[in-house]
Amino acid sequence: MIIVPIKEGENIERALKKFKRKFEKTGTIRELRARKNFEKPSVKKRIAHQKAVYVQHLRLQEEQ
Length: 64
Hints:
This protein is an all-alpha fold and 64 residues long. It has one domain (12-63). It has three helices and no strands. The termini are far apart. The relative contact order is 0.07. The model has no long low-confidence stretch (mean pLDDT 93).
């Protein structure tokens, strides 16, 4: 359960922002979307490898 303490006189919009940030950090939405469409472990591994190669390529370009 997410608890957002509100200080005296604090704006409700600010409290909602805090709540949304905390909720996003828990990863609930990401997990729900991932469960909605099952992905085989081999596919997950392949995508992770492709992402790592892409990021490494970007870092190498940044150095040059």
